[in-house]
Amino acid sequence: MAETVTMDLVSPEKLLLSDAYEMVVVPGTEGDFAVMAGHTAVTSSLRPGVISIYEGDVEKDRIFVNGGFAQIAEDKLTVLAEEAIHVADLDRTDLEQRIQNASEDVEDAKDDEARRKAQENKDQLEQLLEALG
Hints:
The chain is of the alpha+beta class.
C-alpha cells in the first residue's frame, strides 16, 4: 500500500472530513500544491478553489473551499476552510439562477457597501460554478 497523508478538513461549524489519502492538491494563494506523505512542514493561506483528493492517479473527491488556511506537519494536512462544499453536491442550474439573481442585486444596490457585498456574493457563486468545470 502507498504511503498516505492524513487530512482533516475543518469548517467553522465542524470537522467535515478526516481520512488518509495518497495525495491532496490544495489551492494555495501562491498556486496549487500537492501534499503527499513526507511533505515539508508548510503553512499557507488558501484562495477560493477546489481541493482534489487522489488515490493513485484517480481523483477520488473534489471539495470547493472559499478561502482559509492549510497547515502541513509531518504526515498530516489540516485545512481550516471558511466554507467547504463537495463539488458533487453542486447543481449547475441552481447556481446559474443564483448568479443571475446576484447580478441583479449588484445592479440594484443602493450604496457602495451593498454593492460590494452583492459583488462578493456573485464572485463566490461564479467560483462555485467554475468548480463544476
